[in-house]
Amino acid sequence: MQGSSARSAGIAAGLVAALAFATSGPVVKPLLAAGWSPGAAIVVRLTIGAVLLAGPAVWALRGRWSALRTDWATVVGLGLLGVAGASTLYFFAVDRLPVAVALLVEYTGPLLLLLWAWARTGRTPARATLVGAALAMGGLVLVLDVTGSLDLDPLGLLFAGGAAVGNAAYFALTARPISLPPVSLAGAAMAVGAVVVAVLAAVGVLPVEAPDVRVDVLGAQVHWAVPLLVVGAVPTAFAYAVSAVSVRLLGERLASFLALSEVLLAVLLAWVLLGEQPLLWQAAGAVLVVLGVALVRAGADSDVRRGAAPPPAVDVAAAPGAPAAPGGVRATDLGPDGGGEVTRRA
């Protein structure tokens, strides 16, 4: 796959994953309104996702079980922080904060990654990256409609901050140039996350209420299992698998800012499916987010060349036969499953 084609594929995969993630709210909302607790929905969602991803994850490994043993720390870290941690802490946050505020804090994850790379390397990101980050986050404030007088609970903000760390960890760990194919990494981490949230539910940390009810989905009364099967398949198994491919191709910085499009798509889906029409300033915010992501994309190559950002696990800029950037491999070195034998950073 040529460099520009690989990056285009990564962006396309990221947008598809964002759209899939965005379906979660409209599908789960009627279930929660019918009496299910968020904790119960999270446990079932991750369990279904882990089961559905098991087959593709094993197929992508193709007998290379040693990769799981070699990369176990990344798998466990991703499952704990990026899957179970982010989901659980966000649930605790929305129990104490307005949903928009909790989302806004959680989606500072890309900024945390940018600031961490800046502090660790001592190299200032490109001007396009900084301006793009500011525009994207400002646009996100408008899209989430965080207005009015807010009484913010300190513990809720702490939980939301923890969710932001989990969000950042998801991209940082998924972007690592390891030997596990992206789908296998997503599947293994999903299994770890499902076990963790099940344990939290069993010991009472996550309240679980799962009444046997019928719910209203798109005007039809369906059994509670229907929305859960949808949310386990689309915004969980499918979304995490496709997102892992995108992050591996784009790197943590561009992929994390591209993921902000999930919020825009969620607003659009709520409009189409639930009749929640967006406001004018939300549309203006969406434009700012798109412009911001475009600027981050423009500054990405410069940041990688100057060592101000980690390179993608797959070097999408390298031409066939050219040496890969430090820490990555050429896109042309990938196998047919998109995983390849990705070499480690030195």
Automatic annotation (TrEMBL):
Keyword Phosphoprotein among UniProt keywords: no
Pfam families noted in UniProt: EamA (PF00892)
Positions of the EamA domain: 9-144, 155-296
Classification via SUPFAM superfamilies: Multidrug resistance efflux transporter EmrE (SSF103481)
Domain of life, source organism: Bacteria
Biased composition (Low complexity): 314-331
Keyword Membrane applies: yes
Keyword terms, alphabetized: Membrane, Transmembrane, Transmembrane helix
Residues spanning the membrane: 40-61, 73-93, 99-118, 130-149, 155-173, 185-204, 224-242, 254-273, 279-296
Ranges of compositional bias, category Gly residues: 336-346
Family per similarity comment: Belongs to the EamA transporter family.
Protein name: DMT family transporter
Organism: Cellulomonas wangsupingiae
